[in-house]
Automatic annotation (TrEMBL):
Function text: This protein is part of the stalk that links CF(0) to CF(1). It either transmits conformational changes from CF(0) to CF(1) or is implicated in proton conduction.
Pfam families: OSCP (PF00213)
NCBIfam families the record matches: ATP_synt_delta
GO MF, one example: proton-transporting ATP synthase activity, rotational mechanism
A single GO cellular-component term on record: plasma membrane
Chief localisation class: membrane
Superkingdom to which the source organism belongs: Bacteria
Annotated protein name in UniProt: ATP synthase subunit delta
InterPro entries, per database record: ATP_synth_OSCP/delta_N_sf, ATPase_OSCP/dsu
Source species of the chain: Engelhardtia mirabilis
Family to which the UniProt record says this protein belongs: Belongs to the ATPase delta chain family.
Length: 186
């Protein structure tokens, strides 16, 4: 699960629509994936987003990579640098993935557990979440030893907490909010 801003979402929407119309969606999605991997490099990122260098200088570092990409991808990257929106490149991959998932009626999610879940357990959980949410949920299993047992599922801004730690915290909160009888106060 990732986050991105509204500006990145708008650029991703536009790129997705243009690529789909041109019949180049798979190619453009692959381009953005490669671009995202390249930008993940600390050296590339340090130079590419350094405002001390002119945009023309900074984009040159991407020229070898852009040369093999679809024209739509090349045009977008150049447009972002021309409009001083190069920061959109940092979250473009996430925004495009979100758009792609929305188009297919799916959403990313994370299931946290104290130990790794089996494929069968994940499939069962996905089936239950699909029935509950009305869409396919793609789950990533994250190990969180502090949970002790049970699971915690996070999808978008929703969290379902069936962990031992979560249940104990809920019990503690209910006990703290419970009114005390007169006999208990004495």
């Amino acid at each position: 699960m990732s986050s991105f801003d509204a500006v990145s979402a708008r650029y991703a929407e536009a790129l997705y629509a243009l690529a789909q119309k041109a019949g180049a969606l798979e190619s453009v999605l692959g381009d953005v994936e490669r671009l995202t991997a390249e930008i993940a490099s600390p050296k590339v990122r340090a130079y590419l987003f350094n405002p001390r260098f002119a945009a023309e200088q900074r984009i040159k570092i991407l020229d070898p990579l852009l040369g093999g990409m679809h024209q739509l991808t090349q045009n977008l990257v150049r447009l972002l640098f021309d409009r001083n929106r190069d920061g959109v490149l940092l979250s473009l991959g996430d925004a495009l993935r979100a758009k792609q998932l929305t188009e297919r009626g799916a959403v990313d999610g994370v299931v946290e557990s104290a130990r790794p879940l089996s494929g069968e357990q994940l499939d069962e959980l996905k089936t239950g979440l699909r029935a509950r949410m009305g869409k396919e949920v793609l789950l990533d299993n994250r190990i969180v030893p502090d949970l002790v047992g049970g699971i915690r599922v996070i999808v978008g801004s929703s969290m379902i907490d069936y962990s031992v730690k979560g249940r104990l915290a809920g019990l503690r909160d209910r006990m703290n909010r419970a009114p005390l009888s007169a006999a208990a106060r004495a």
